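Why this split exists: single-chain examples teach little about how molecules sit against one another. For that reason, every record in the complexes split bundles all components of an assembly together and asks for one structure covering all of them. Below is a record exactly as it appears in the raw files.
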Amino acid sequence: MDAFLAAGAAFLDPYLLGVVLVGTIGGVLVGAMPGLSSTMATALLLPFTLTMEPIPAIALLSALYCAGTYGGSITGILVNAPGAPPAAATAFDGYPLAQQGRAGLALGMAAVSSVIGGLFSVVVLIVAAPLLARVAYDFGPPEYFALALFGLSMLATISGESAVKNLIGGAFGVLLATIGMDFTTGVDRFTFGFWELSEGIHFIPVMIGLFAGCEFLTQAGKLDQVQIRAALDAVKLPAWADFRKCFGTIARSCGIGTFIGLLPAEGGTVAAMIGYNEAKRWAKDKSLFGKGDIRGVAGPEAANNAATGAAMVPTLALGIPGSATTAIILGALLVHGLRPGPHLFTETPTLLYAIFLAMLLANIVFGVFGLIGAKLFARVTLIPIRFLWPSVFIMACIGAYALEQSVLDVWIMVGAGLLGFVLKRYGFAAAPIIMGLILGELVENSLKQSLIIFDHDWLRFLDRPIVVSFLLLTAVSAFWPVVSAWRARRAAAAAAE
Amino acid sequence: MGMPPGQERAAAAARIPRDLVIAGALLAFCAVTYGITLGFDEAPAAVAQNVQPATFPRLVLAAIAVLAAVLAVTSFRLDSPRKWPIKPMVPATAAMMVAFVVAFDTLGFIAAMGLFGLLMPVLWGERRWRLVIPYAVLFPAVVYVVFVLGLGVHFDPGLLGIN
């Protein structure tokens, strides 16, 4: 209770309130800009938070995360170009609604359902994170190894070109994490004689390169694309009848989004897709879906925002990121000298409550700004990309450089951007690589410690029930795409008969 | 005029699956990287506690190799979609990215940023000089004020000595 009061008191400071406000408005703006996701924005912003105290730094990134998830819906609805991947499903019905001259209704419903989803998930975060952390007190290195393995195996089920490629991406990230000095023996690995690499590759330049550098190149290939803007009427709150029509959809999506967000590695994109599919599946009249059904906006928006708070649960309680953006927030905690996990709850409870309050506040603020300022926020799409993306690239260079004030980090960022573009072209997404890079150290250290505890007898992993449970979950999640593809083929065959 | 359907199917069957090529490249990568791990120093047994520095990277490489084999096998049944052609602007932009870092290291950050701000929009087809020139001047100025004066980031002045 003392920690909660201390966190609440911290929010009486206009500086912290201002930081959350800036993070929220910035999040909506970057979320609204096609190609600029909240993931990229948090990666770009992270190096500049190093000079801040941990509470405002993490509060800023958390607010940006919440608001950015909502912001993507604005351009999804108005321009049919989702600002961020979680808003892709929103555009299915949002853009047809805008074309029908009902953009205000779609934007209003997106704001309201996002706020409901977001607030619901923050409440879940407040309740579930301490409980999960309490369970994690019993975890030793074998449990953490199995948990990290489970987190990596979940990459098979996230959206992307192929489950196998996601897993390869995750493993490649783990391999990148082995660059530098081995912590137990002091032997250099993959340093090729560069002493600068002995400390390993810092994940921040890699992350910025994979997201911002790669997107800069992607945008270079899209210069001739013209966006068609739908007319925007005044943004208005959905009428009671619209709300009543969507109430079940929003409630269901809150549950779906929260559940998906709680799973390691999953995030808003998967939640939104499932939220949309379930909204359609439960609807009695499905004929308007894809043509402008308001439930097709409410479903994915409530789900992707419900995933935000929930994704913070494994991130804070276990140190296993719940999504790509929370992987960056996890990185932010690490560079601020904080080790996510159960000890965070006993050692720095004020910080945790401040994060909860920042997320609550961000959800309320973006709801208000979304309703009154969506038309204004939508104007970010008018910034000419010939100026916007070179500016983003320069910011990426500054972000990579500012960390250690080293040009080598800028080279690493550019290299990661070029590599990310090539990998993306062949179906390897950036998020699994980042997950692997961040979890790599935990996987290696916990495996080594476990092997020492077990005297190198691998079978003794099976003596521990929690480890066995995680290993079973790992097997299920790794093979889930195979099972779901088989079920889809069987359903298609049955339908053909 | 496209190929007749029969020929199209035969051509598709004769084509090497894209994912098979990717899997081959991954296996080659694993082999080369494994070779690099052979050059790692061995640590004394008491320090390494039976886990040599190369052990974990080799485990990860083995995992990648197994997944690459799975990708190769599944590529015959389910190949990845055909890739979009790379437009000439992409390699030109990549070259500008590299040139920017070279300029950053030699001319200094502020000068490099001014040049990049001038050339990049022009490369991307912007011809409104009344926008390009103010952008090339004002953007570095704003960055200087915010990051150098505001946040205390130190950039080397470079050959031109601008900082």
